User: What shape does this take?
Amino acid sequence: MPTSPGSPTSPGSQPQDTSEQAAWRVRVQALASAADGIRQASDRWDAVSDSYCDEDGWPVDETGYADGKVARDAAAWEHVETFLAHGPEVLAGVRATAQQADYLDGAISADLLRLREIDSVLAQAGEIRREWDQVIALMEGSMPGSRELYGERAHEIRNSEGWHYADELSYSGAALARAADHLTDRIGVDRPAHTGRVQAALARAASGQRSASPASPPASAASDPPATRRSR
Assistant: This one.
């Protein structure tokens, strides 16, 4: 906040803002890289998937086709983990910081609108992770050593179930990263009202992550479709 020449500067105020913005940039860059990583995994698979199929699109090399999808899903899930780690906090910060003008006709208005369904995507992906973490823990507890035998297969199933949400995050997650990057200069501003909104948004995000039933319903296939969808 501006100060008069004779007024003392609050100790540590500027370093705090700088630190908050630096941490924010790290999270935003991680999300941008994760969205790009999912797109790359999808593009790599799309580039070769037809080679495993006949002219009608049916697999003729079922082993190669299955292995390719397993590799795609595994690569994508690694980036979903990044969204689960940083997405809720960044999303809360964006919603607390964005102003009405940003939604109406700002540089990030389209990206902010795309975030309407991201709560559900993050919540469902988080639920998949919790379910399969429990499965692996039960295997280990009831049948010691079974993790070495069946853990890889369990992860393959988890990754396959998570692919839909990974694909969604390659779009909505990229929009979140762009919006958050645009708002970086507003992060760490010492305004009581802003601080209250951030805390309230973080509380809502935490509550949504704990709940198995997210507040927003999952997006339907016809809801706000991207220009092109990929990866069979």
